[in-house]
Amino acid sequence: MTDNLRHDWTIEDVENLFQQPFNDLVFQAQLAHREHFNPNRVQVSTLLSIKTGACPEDCKYCPQSGHYNTGLDKEKLMEVRKVLEEARHAKSSGATRFCMGAAWKNPPAKDMPYIFEMVKGVKELGLETCMTLGMLNEEQANQLAEAGLDYYNHNLDTSPEFYGNIITTRTFSDRMDTLSHVRESGMNVCSGGIVGLGETVRDRAAMLIELANLPKHPESVPINMLVRVAGTPLENVDAVDGIEFVRTIAVAKILMPSSNVRLSAGRENMSDELQALAFLAGANSIFLGDKLLTTPNPKESDDRQLFDKLGINMDDTVEETSEQDMEEFARNCPLREQDTEQYYDAMKAS
Ligand code: SF4
Fold first, then answer.
1. Which of 20, 59, 172, 337 sits in a 20 to 30 Å window from 197, CA-based?
2. How many angstroms does the Cα of residue 205 sit away from the middle of ligand 1?
3. Residue 196 and residue 223: Cα distance in Å, rounded?
4. 95, 44 in Cβ contact below 8 A?
5. 207 with 37: CB under 8 angstroms?
6. Residue 271, by phi and psi: left (phi above 0), alpha (psi -120 to 50) or beta?
7. Residue with the nearest Cα to atom 5 of ligand 1?
8. How far is the CA of 105 from the centre of ligand 1 (A)?
9. Per-residue confidence at 316, pLDDT binned at 50, 70, 90?
10. How confident is the model at residue 1 (pLDDT cuts 50, 70, 90)?
């Protein structure tokens, strides 16, 4: 590959990564992360539901599916004016990307003109744009790219083998088709999965391999911890172990080191310490704001406090950290500045 990244991972390779001692795995992920990013910066997006509920799909984790009774208020497509108000607010809170999600199987043709208006309006505010609208055909992907949409989110959720246990109204290959239309259209790809659906470690490995072995890695890889919502079929599934969750983040970073790995849904139930471990394992992106589509997210003030404690800055560059930033980081990194008893500069020594 021309990008010098691996795209030929096998299930054995990735299972072996998962089985490493935790410290070795996290250390390896942190090293991979530092090759591509400033480790003390986190990219911040805000996510808004622009059309809520009554989705014809039957994703077993989702409160917006019309198949389950979760007591969620359904809402039609939000007015463009209202969406832009929310985007302005997100920008003033420090977000660099504004993500808009609609609970659709595919975006209906009649709504596309409004969608294009939203993309244009949000971009004019100086924010990056991302949308998640369900499956896209080639034409729709091209139209969204022409409207200026920067990112399209379409999660794989889980492995091809486990997929039918979670969703029956579409197939794993439908999902891959949309990802390929998005990539071909020139938009950036945002795609990840969910931990805690009742899947095995092998399923987590298989899901990450599907992403890492794409011809080009997704620019953004959200790793979600299942939020167990009452009324969904997964409301009583066993909670996922925090350490196992961090292992998934670390493996995602090792497989796709130049991608932004997003610590996504489920943060509300995570301690500061668990989130800190996830950042150490290479997560470098979050959603800011107290709601993620329809489920709760930590308060903005709590996130700012956590970032202060960890010495993390919100990324205002939106892109992968620049060479200049990396040089500055290298200059300030104590392990690189001077040798100590425990560490020495192998480059200087060779
Ligand atoms: S996850 Fe998306 S596609 Fe699935 S039911 Fe929810 S809104 Fe619909």
1. 20
2. 23
3. 11
4. yes
5. no
6. beta
7. 65
8. 7
9. low
10. very low
How many A from CA of 103 to the centre of ligand 1?
6
Q: Is any ligand 1 atom within 6 A of the Cβ of residue 62?
A: yes
Angle between helical axes of 11-19 and 22-36 (0-180°, round to 10): 110
Please give the positions annotated as active site: 55, 59, 62, 99, 130, 190, 262
Please give the number of the atom of ligand 1 that sits closest to the Cα of 104: 8
pLDDT tens digit string along 317-344?
444 444 444 454 444 444 433 433 333 3
Average of per-residue pLDDT values in the chain: 87
The token duo for 142 is 């091209």
The pTM (predicted TM-score) of the whole model is 0.84
